[in-house]
Specification:
The complex is a heterodimer of chains A (637) and B (257). Chain A is built from 17 helices and 21 strands. With 637 residues, chain A is α/β, with parallel strands linked by helices. Among the domains of chain A are: 134 residues, Alpha-Beta Complex (Flavocytochrome C3, Chain A, domain 1); 151 residues, Fumarate reductase/succinate dehydrogenase flavoprotein-like, C-terminal domain (Methane Monooxygenase Hydroxylase, Chain G, domain 1). Chain A is globular. Chain B starts with a strand and ends in a 12-residue tail after the last helix. Chain B has 2 domains: 109 residues, Roll (Ubiquitin-like (UB roll)); 134 residues, Fumarate Reductase Iron-sulfur Protein, Chain B, domain 2 (Orthogonal Bundle). In chain B, helix 2 runs antiparallel to helix 6 and helix 6 crosses helix 8. Chain B contains 8 helices and 7 strands, in the order ββαβββββααααααα. Chain B is an alpha+beta fold and 257 residues long. The chains are: A alpha/beta (637), B alpha+beta (257). At the A-B interface, helix 3, helix 5, helix 6, helix 11 and helix 12 of A face helix 1, helix 2 and helix 3 of B.
Chain lengths: 637, 257
């Protein structure tokens, strides 16, 4: 299989403009004849569904939550980047592009990233017009904050609820289109298979989560905007429902999965408190603007933070990375935290934590200013830990947060299955091996508002699409496939809960495919995972039936997919014998402990092709060309 | 801690429901309320019984999925806190907790603690947006917004649509939810062109659903996990009456006041 990225020719700055002109258009009167299925209603899905409907397409949108407003984009706190240069501090489209490629450790496509940086400015305008209440200066203009991995202030925000406000903007646009009749919304509905007819994605099979009914939906194109797969680790900052099922089942139907091992561990999360822990809560990275990260110099120092004098503290980020300090990128800050905890200098229960201290900032700016900037985050922290961060430093620890890998897409955001488009975190395209803070919201909205509305038109206008008969064998096969899997899961009636398998898988992944990886650990994981999977299919218990609201059954299907995806992640991590971004192989580090990339062997996208019957997946490579950015060792010192 | 739970179990929308008693052992103060239920559910599942169904997703108090009546109080005893952010340190050993779904005519029970809140989506569909299609927007700094207005808009926009206000209201009114969206948009210049039409449409939809009327009990703001103020309802009423008095919204003077 040849991976055709379809990157337009010509200078980087002109590629998207040129492409927009060269793409075919669908006549306005013809748009309503096309039916697009959008799966997911987060920033990418809701913005795509709304915009496609505004253009005149007939859209069906699906989400597993009870309302599209609840998609996990809502939990993003810190902000959204845009190259507006409102602060006059040297920002530009080129700088955002450069920062993103560098932040991704040179494992992303230049052309996609440049387009993302270009579109970032339109996103802010669009959101303001929708009534997103971004933070303002006293003069009434938009304000910005700085964020990890950048030396300019380009992050727009709405208190600590930026994701919520952006999503409500997109959700409201979606509801507007639902009211108009352009979008039919299917909440509490989960996609469980993709229907491929004549090699093209033509439909999906869904389960109504209330009645259990399994039905196909047919259309002319399918858009997956179903988010990332961080919950393969069981504990992550993802919502509990976030899952890989839609992309994984599309993968099994022929969509290649790219860079599955590129996962991001976020440095500032609230440490785990017990075995019952169900998720980890993120504290926005923006806190690192004013908080200083430290641990005691002494190993095993049992004194409270207030008892440790200044000279006995190690502000290790400021020490190791003097120019970026506490604002070092996420992968670097996470690894540094792990390092000091591994040295026995961690704080809090189990020594799995570091301090994030606001005492200096409060002295400098006053408690009111800190409250204004981070009040809701401080409250959230106090609610969870029962500690007041205005008085004692926060305790934080890294946690899985985002997955840069995802289904492989070309420049048009189309997967290797024609007609199947993948947006937002579900695709692999823009963040390389590490995503910078405040860039996920940017990508989701760029894909949904400004990329897919053009590229899907080109696909539809240039592709002859015959109607699919309601009794087409591909359709019946997909429905039967979904029905069988449900029956099988319900029929095992074993002894272990779905949750216990999920937890076991998560431990294996965190241990062997987490912040630091090596060949021995990954090989061990590749032995352990199939054994867990085998036991799952023999010994899981799923109470109830398929013809009702059955949350155990929903979870079981998702864990079954995670058990397969986990193996692919480890395989990918094992094959990539270099360290880059979030993928840190302990065998490949510089003498001072930084990631050692190997551009001569690994400057490519690893795209895996699924093989049936347990055969090993086949690796395809898309070579990455860097024509505009000089491949350099990332340094934040 | 050991707690006794009396939980509403209802297998289907039209089935009979009843309170079933369970014991929750080994509860620790740092557990969240939902984690406590997870542990109970693990136990039920191991025994082959069907676990308690409840809506939840982000578990960090922002998605608005979760919500239950805990001893008759929406989201439980801690003010300005969603159920997922409520921790067991709010309770003590030996407590008995009665856990029920939102009780409101407009929120029919689907199963156990899950209810159908789609009426909220329909209220938004009636006008809870700015009619601007993608691609039409002027530069974000074209219209300055006074900091105070932006903050007031954000206070209202913080609503997570969980439905606690409806569940807490003796009338089952959705006034706080509806007013929060109206107020968010009416504080901003972008919301002005449709301000009065929006108030008419959203209030009409609210009335069309099975919600009750607001009679100023004030329970909604007490229950709101995001501290949305009842003042928003006063603002909604003013806009609604302005719009009703002047038949055509174009005639109504606009302003961000």
């Amino acid at each position: 299989m040849e991976l055709r990225s379809n990157i337009p020719s010509g200078p980087l700055q002109q590629k998207w403009d040129k492409h927009r002109f060269e793409m075919k258009l669908v006549n306005p009167a013809n748009k309503r004849k096309y039916h697009v299925l959008v799966v997911g209603s987060g920033l990418a899905g809701a913005s795509a569904a709304a915009t496609l409907s505004e253009l005149g397409y007939h859209v069906s949108c699906f989400c597993f939550q009870d309302s599209p407003r609840r998609a996990h984009s809502i939990a993003a706190q810190g902000g959204i980047n845009a190259a507006k240069n409102y602060q006059n501090d040297g920002d530009s489209v080129w700088r955002l592009f450069y920062d993103t490629v560098k932040g991704g450790d040179f494992r992303s496509r230049e052309a996609n990233v440049y387009r993302l940086a270009q579109l970032s400015v339109n996103i802010i305008d669009q959101c303001v017009a929708q009534g997103v209440p971004f933070a303002r200066e006293y003069g009434g203009l938009l304000t910005n904050r700085s964020f990890g991995g950048a030396q300019v202030s380009r992050t727009f925000y709405a208190r600590g609820q930026t994701g919520q406000q952006l999503l409500l903007g997109a959700y409201q646009a979606l509801e507007k289109e639902i009211a108009k009749g352009g979008v039919t919304m299917f909440p509490r509905t989960e996609m469980l298979d993709l229907v491929v007819v004549n090699g093209r994605a033509r439909g999906i099979v869904v389960r109504d989560l209330v009645t259990g009914a399994i039905t196909p939906h047919m259309g002319h194109a399918v858009v997956l905007a179903t988010g990332g797969y961080g919950n393969v680790f069981y504990l992550s900052t993802n919502a509990r429902g976030s899952n890989a099922t839609a992309i994984w089942r599309a993968h099994k139907r022929g969509a290649l999965f790219a860079n599955p091992c590129f996962t991001q561990i976020h440095p500032t999360c609230i440490p785990q408190s017990g075995h019952y822990q169900s998720k980890l809560t993120l504290m926005s990275e923006s806190l690192r603007n004013d908080g200083r990260v430290w641990v005691p110099r002494q190993k095993g120092d049992a004194r409270g933070p207030g008892q440790i004098p200044e000279e006995e503290r190690d502000y290790y980020l400021e020490r190791k990375y003097p120019s970026f300090g506490n604002l070092s990128p996420r992968d670097i800050a996470s690894r540094a935290a792990k390092e000091v905890c591994d040295e026995g200098r961690g704080v809090g229960p189990g020594g799995l934590g570091v301090y994030l201290d606001f005492a200096d900032a409060i002295r400098r700016l006053g408690e009111d200013t800190i409250r204004e900037r981070y009040g809701n985050l401080f409250e959230m922290y106090e609610r969870i830990t029962d500690e007041n961060p205005y008085r004692v430093p926060m305790r934080i620890y890294p946690a899985v947060h985002y997955t840069m890998g995802g289904l492989w897409v070309d420049y048009n955001l189309m997967s290797t299955i024609p007609g199947l488009h993948v947006l937002g975190e579900a695709n692999f395209s823009d963040h390389g091996a590490n995503r910078l803070g405040a860039s996920a919201l940017m990508q989701g909205l760029a894909d949904g508002y400004f990329v897919i509305p053009y590229t899907i038109g080109h696909y539809l206008a240039s592709t002859p699409l015959e109607p699919v008969a309601p009794d087409a064998p591909e359709l019946r096969d997909a429905v039967r496939n979904v029905e069988n899997m449900g029956q099988q899961l319900l029929g095992i009636r074993g002894k272990r809960t779905v949750q216990s398998f999920h937890r076991e898988l998560g431990k294996i992944m965190w241990e062997h495919c987490g912040m630091a990886r090596n060949a021995a650990g990954l090989e061990e994981a590749l032995r352990l995972i199939p054994a867990v999977r085998e036991e799952f299919w023999k010994n899981v218990t799923v109470p109830g039936s398929g013809a009702e609201l059955n949350q155990s059954l929903e979870h079981a299907g998702r864990v079954a997919d995670f058990l397969e995806l986990a193996e692919l992640m480890c395989r990918d991590a094992l094959h990539r014998e270099e360290s880059c971004g979030g993928h840190f192989r302990t065998e490949h580090e510089t003498p001072d402990g930084e990631a050692q990339r190997d551009d001569s062997r690994f400057a490519y996208v690893a795209a895996w092709e699924y093989q049936a019957n347990g055969a090993a997946p086949v690796l395809h490579k898309e070579a990455l060309q860097f024509e505009n950015v000089h491949l350099a060792t990332r340094s934040y010192k | 801690m050991r707690l006794t739970l009396r939980v509403w179990r209802q297998p289907a929308p039209n089935a009979e429901g009843r309170l079933v008693t369970y014991t929750a052992d080994d509860v620790t103060p740092d557990m969240s309320f939902l984690e406590m239920l997870d542990v109970v559910n693990e136990g039920l599942t191991e025994k082959g019984e069907s676990p308690i169904a409840f809506d939840h997703d982000c578990r960090e108090g922002i998605c608005g999925s979760c919500g239950m009546m805990i001893n008759g109080v929406a989201h439980g005893p801690m003010k300005a806190t969603t159920t997922c952010q409520l921790h067991m340190r709010s309770f003590k050993d030996g407590d008995t907790l009665t856990i029920e779904p939102w009780r409101a005519a407009a929120f029919p029970v689907i199963r156990d603690l899950c209810v159908d809140r789609s009426a909220f989506d329909r209220i938004i569909q009636a006008g809870g947006y700015v009619s601007v299609a993608t691609g039409n927007a002027p530069d974000g700094n074209t219209l300055p917004v006074a900091k105070g207005d932006a903050e007031a808009a954000m206070d209202a926009a913080a609503c997570i649509g969980c439905g606690a206000c409806v569940a807490a209201c003796p009338n089952g009114s959705a006034s706080l939810f509806t007013a929060a969206k109206l107020s968010h948009l009416s504080h901003l210049p972008q919301g002005q062109p449709e301000r009065y039409r929006r108030a008419l449409m959203m209030v009409a939809q609210m009335d069309e659903e099975s919600f009750g009327n607001c009679t100023w009990f004030g329970e909604c703001q007490e229950a709101c996990p995001k501290d949305v103020s009842i003042d928003e309802i006063a603002r909604m009423n003013r806009d609604f009456w302005m719009a009703s008095l002047f038949e055509r919204d174009e005639k109504v003077s606009t302003g961000t006041g």
